[in-house]
Input
Amino acid sequence: MTVQHPDLGNGPVLFISDLHLSSAQPALITFFRHFCAHEGREARAVFILGDLFDYWVHRDQATEAPYAEILALLHALHQQGTAVYLMTGNRDFALEADFLAQFGIIALPDPALLQLGNRRVLLTHGDLLCSDDHRYQRFRRVIRHPLTRLALGRLPYAWLQRIARGLRRGSSREVRTKAPAITDANPQTVVAALRGKGAFALDGAPYDMLIHGHTHRPAWEQGPEGERMVLGAWGADGARIGRWEHGQWSLQRLDPP
Output
């Protein structure tokens, strides 16, 4: 999918990921509320590249706090003229395009291509780049398989919540035991992504730039194949977000209110 928006003008266009919003961290909800009231309102478009929520298992969550407020904040951005795009991540991949559309949010596949100015920018959550983590990649294929999704969709909401909590606890334990290199983007896979190979093959390859999150290791690198911007996770010490304005790119620090 190539993202074509009629009026991004000179921006600003913002890129965020890995907010992991949930009732367990009210300070992050306050942080996001502040972002929507300030940076979000001033932007032509906001691209959320996965893991907006710490977990999402069912649209019934939209009736609960804090999810109802978060979706309302994004809907308000849409109504005041900010285009909101959302790509799911490994925590919230159960979000569905038709559900998001109710709030004016445009669902993005992973990966997606954004033509911005004279740049062909590849957008991805980032977990596909962690190709050395073979165990996770197998789990990803299974949990996202249509038959698995169909089976999970028939379970009661309360069961899905228990499954999600168990998976999160298991994931946290696994990450602590894995070597840092395993949970980071594989350099060869990054090159393949910029060249448009394998899972990253889209019309418009090769690409000039790659933007992703997931690894929680913010960085901005220039390599022989193109640029790579890695967005940061949101936390008590702030966030690192991507910004495009008047043709200029930056990896911007965002401090909590």
Q: What stands out?
A: The chain has seven helices and twelve strands. The radius of gyration is 17 Å.
